Amino acid sequence: MTDQELAETLAGEGVIISNVVFDCPDASTAFGCEASGASYGYFECLDCNLGLGAGVLLTSGCIDNAIGPNDIGSASTGLAAPGDPDLDMIPGVLGTNDACALYLDVEVAADTLKFNYVFGSEEYLEFVGSFNDVFAFYISGPNPAGGNYNMQNIAIIPGTSTYVSINNVNDTSNPGYYV
Q1: CA separation, residue 168 to residues 18, 94, 96, 107, 173 (Å)
Q2: Which residue of 21, 61, 85, 161 is surrounded by the most CB atoms within 10 Å?
Q3: How far is CA 152 from CA 65, 91, 109, 137, 140, in A?
Q4: What Rg value do the Cα atoms of the chain yield, rounded?
Q5: What's the domain count of the chain?
Q6: Alpha helices in the chain (DSSP H)
Q7: How many CA within 13 A on the CB side of residue 19?
Q8: Residue-level pLDDT, tens digit, the chain, 179 residues
């Protein structure tokens, strides 16, 4: 599957996706990544509790390690890759590593765009309060309510301005969003 085709799996009817760029570390030489050698890809999860049956998986390691359950102490794959400057700008984020980002342009024929995501981390629960895996979904462009969005992170905990991370969503912080 090409990167364009992978990104198009996110689109519904009336949505055009273009200018697709996956900016993710090369996992092909990492220990434990021999099967796929990839840090991003397509997933299907038809018998699990993710809330999504399929989608695009972005990791800070190897997609091979994403197959659950998370029942061992550490299955991390450090790739010694750079972080993401956009994630580093989030207040409380003290620098990122091994970042995997998807950049794309979206055109919609309607006045509403919905996006469902699930945030997960191999760092749960042993590294809550130390390593802080984080997720952001930035949008730029016309705001239907007026004005423009300019790199606004819409991946926040509902009713707050708190970003999504293992330190902010876990068994004691915002546990209603933690599975």
Answers
A1: 32, 14, 16, 32, 6
A2: 61
A3: 30, 13, 22, 8, 7
A4: 16
A5: 1
A6: 3-8, 85-88
A7: 5
A8: 899 999 999 998 899 999 999 998 877 777 667 667 788 899 888 887 788 889 999 988 777 777 777 666 666 666 677 778 888 888 888 888 788 899 999 998 887 888 899 988 877 878 888 878 899 999 999 888 899 999 999 999 999 999 999 899 999 999 999 98
142 forms beta bridges with 148
Which residue, 179, 55, 176, 170, is CA-closest to 123?
170
Nearest to 68 by CA among 49, 83, 42, 84: 49
Phi, psi of 5 (to 5 degrees): -65, -40
| Alpha carbon separation from 146 to 42, 117, 143 (Å, rounded) | 35, 25, 5
Task: Supply the range of the domain harboring residue 48.
Answer: 1-179
Bridge partners (DSSP) listed for residue 101: 23
Residue type, 153: N
Q: Residue for token digits 């390691």?
A: 61
Interatomic CA distance for residues 36 and 32, integer angstroms: 9
Say if residue 175 is preceded by a cis peptide, omega within 30 of 0: no
User: In angstroms, what CA-CA distances link 48 with 13, 54, 59?
Assistant: 26, 11, 19
